[in-house]
Structure formats: structure tokens, C-alpha cells
Amino acid sequence: MLKRFRFSFASWFRKKVVDPLVQILRRGTEPKQLAFSAALGITLGVFPICGVTVFLCGIAIAVLGSLCHAPTVMLANFVATPVELSLVIPFLRFGEIITGGPHFPLTSDAFKKVLTGQASREVVQSIFHALLGWFVAAPLILGALYILSLPCFKILVRKFSAVPSSPKKPLNSMSSPRKPLNSPTEVRLKVRDV
């Protein structure tokens, strides 16, 4: 049973993460742009409100345009989804520390109060604290992820890129020594005075 789970997870991970990443790398995007895009996607992907991260990434892609690589942002957002839920409580506690606000209890009794509507004010306050914790931590997360991922993307782009980063021979046919300038294949344009 465990062996079957490992195989299905490995197959799923390869299909959903590894194969798209290899396709991105083979298209010849710059490592700096890929590192920034991956860091941005993960940073937005750990936003403490579930279901909003795809819209945040779409807005970031629209605003940043060619500064970021859209497929990399979305792939990184997808990869960050499991981490998102695990960071809600640390962002909440960090926001409480920043504001000096009351500690929101995470007990079954508090959950019961939330479901019955008795703790609406505390819930709104805890959401605010989690958002504040993320807003303060986001620039640090973005910077750290960029610094850590840039060397990795430099290596990966060099390894998987199908497009050479700089051609060794000029691509211009006029500079090629094989054909003389007055060959029969040369096209001449005439300009007429009107």
C-alpha cells in the first residue's frame, strides 16, 4: 500500500511540478527573472487567506508585466499551497506580537464559538493580525527566496536550456565569409523617386 502511494505521489509530482519546470527552463528565460518569479509566487502563495493566492498572483503578473515570468509565478504558487496552511498560525502570532493585541485561542471551544457566531469580533481581529504578520514578513520572505533560488536557477537554466545564452557565431548572413557580397543570390533593392 505504501509503495503504491509513493509511486502515485512521485508520478503526480513529476507530472504537476517537475515536467512544467523543465518546460519553463527549456524556453531560455533569464535566471534572475525565474528566481524573482519563483520567489514572488511562493511569497504570494503563503498569503494567510485560503483561495485568494491565485488572484493575487494574477494581479502581480498584470502589474509587473515582463518583469516576471507568469508560468513560474503560477507554478511556485501551486507548490506553496501546502505550506500556506501551515503558516497561518505563525503569521497570526507574529501579527499579535506586532500589535500587542490579545492572543486568539486556538481551541475546540474557540472553534465552536466561531461556528455559532459568538466570536465574530475576535475572528476579524485574528484575520487582521494574520494579514499584518504576512505583510511584515512578505518582503523578507521574497528577498530570502530570491537570494536562495538565484544560484539554483543559474545552474538549472545552464543545464536544461535549449537556447544558447549568447551565440558564438554571428547569425547575420552578410558577415558570413562563405558567400561573396556580389553573389547571384544577393537581393538588390531599387528605390524610385516619386
UniProtKB/TrEMBL annotation:
The chain crosses the membrane at residues 34-64, 127-148. Residues 21-159 form the DUF2062 domain. Pfam families: DUF2062 (PF09835). Coiled coil: none annotated. InterPro entries: DUF2062. Residues 164-194 are annotated as: Disordered. The keyword Membrane applies. Keywords: Membrane, Transmembrane, Transmembrane helix. This is DUF2062 domain-containing protein.
